[in-house]
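Hey,

Quick one before I head out. I ran the complex with zinc ion overnight. Inputs first:
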Amino acid sequence: MTLFKIIRILILLAVFVVVAFYAKNQKLKSRSWTEPVSVVIYRINGDNNSPVVNEYINELDEGVFEPVDRFLQQQSAKYKLIAKQPTQIRMGPVLTVLPPEAPLPGEGYVAIIWWGLKFRYWTYKNAVDSDSGMRRIDVFVLYHEATKDRSLQHSLGLDKGLAVVVHAFSSVEQDQQNNIVIAHELLHTVGATDKYAADNSALFPIGYADPEQSPLYPQAKAEIMVARIPLSASTMRMADSLDECVIGEQTAREINWLQEEK
Ligand SMILES: [Zn+2]
């Protein structure tokens, strides 16, 4: 190994340690829930400047995202948070730059860490607001034309970075499902984990909205970190809106709404 290579690796490692430390701090503050976490939604045309998408994102207003704030507020009511309202969503500007391309599945840890650093830097350059950086979650929504049977790339967030890329459809009929994805990804940034198996079915009991219901099926609602409602042991359907979702006990614990029993 040449000296140059060693120095390069050491610098990269140092950057990584500093970033990891900052991210940990950021996460602790955002998870104290002593005041509302501000959430900024950035709109990005994810379809090569498609005019249909442009029209949709330019006409979006802040009110479209209000159900996300309302959902988190309603779900937090039974826990003792200091903040009366966990989040405060507002709409940031339309961005014309795309985030760095996400690593493909199977590319390994180094690729993910490298993407994380690039994405963090990109966020730093493009998130216009610099206020309350410690308590702000940046949500970059890439909108795509809604065509039949089209499926979207999986959304991707920084584990501890309070920033996330969400893929969504640019159609009014999809607004409420987009809000489910936004709420789901937002909860990842504050520590929530997915609660479904490889075949997308909800894990029992943590992925069920009401694991104690008898009979167990059909469930009436979806746990937000699953977003699908189990109808029987082998069937399920996507929740239509956040009205059909709940934050389960395990998720509440992960995002620090419910203290660990001692
Ligand atoms: Zn997820």
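The CA atoms of residues 132 and 229 lie 36 Å apart.

Talk tomorrow,
K.
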